[in-house]
């Protein structure tokens, strides 16, 4: 009798907290992990026992070729991406990846768009009658913003992540000026209340499990202190949003429980089609998120009874030193770390 070899999983985006913690979790489950990132100093590339690889950033002209080359070389059984900007590319390459024996678990393109594009997310939720803050484009500032009404607004990239280029303001003039500084901005009414993240897993039938946690301390867009909680209304609205968008696989939803409901008590602000940065709090609370995500990824039923959780379980994160020394030389496709020459029409043979 021969034992089955461990799953070999390619995890992308190991320079960020979701990718780093996902790689660690998969290693703990006995998987072989290929850790990939565009930054040679990404901390996940330094994890013991992973196979580190450099890949291009999402949108790089050679990103598709480099990914297919990597998969052809190392033959992972599946890809788990923690970089949402990669999802459209993975969708286009799904057939070629399948030919290489690499599984993917991706939502439909419209769901990916709603997760990446904050205005699209607002549009979908509004169409389904779900509570979400007013979200505007710069050309709507003069018509919608009223000076002196005490309302706070946040200007942020329409397709941004990691709390980059995020500014707060109170007046029309401030909003107009700040919108000039933000790439492809949206202007959103600030929600006053307690911020939460819902760690979710949606199976291939559309059934969702939802784990709620408060974002008690946020730094750079990452909840560094979290605590799980229960709230039937929040769970109901998150589940409805997942259905409205068409989410599948591991994902997360952010929102607020408002201090002064106007008239909604809960509003939902964004959705990400990946593990959240604080998902370990939900795991510690009893929700077997990574193992069940693996089951779904490989076409097995998700056991939602293993996604129950205990409230009041906290997570505290801190910055640690993982590795020091010279920048290591990592294996990489030759197009992964070198941008094309401006006049080049394609890769050099």
Defining traits:
four-stranded parallel sheet, Dna Ligase, domain 1, 3 domains, disordered C terminus, 349 residues, alpha+beta, Rossmann fold, globular, D-amino Acid Aminotransferase, Chain A, domain 1, six-stranded antiparallel sheet, 14 strands
- Alpha-carbon Rg, integer: 21 Å
Would you tell me the structural class of the helices and strands?
alpha+beta
Would you give the CATH topology of the largest domain? Answer: D-amino Acid Aminotransferase, Chain A, domain 1
| Arithmetic mean of pLDDT | 90
Shape: globular
Q: Could you list the spans in which at least 5 consecutive residues all have pLDDT below 50?
A: 335-349
Q: What CATH first level of the largest domain would be assigned? A: Alpha Beta
How many helical stretches? Answer: 10
Helices and strands, in order, run as EHEEHEHHHEHEEHEEEEHEEHHE
What percent of residues are in strands? 15-25%
Give the CATH superfamily of the largest domain.
ATP-grasp fold, B domain
Strand count, sense and barrel status of the largest sheet are: 6 strands, antiparallel
Instruction: Name the helicity range.
Output: 25-40%
Distance between the termini: 46 Å
- Total number of strands: 14
Q: What is the CATH-assigned architecture of the largest domain?
A: 2-Layer Sandwich
Which assembly state applies to the chains in this document?
A: single chain
Supply the number of structural domains. Answer: 3
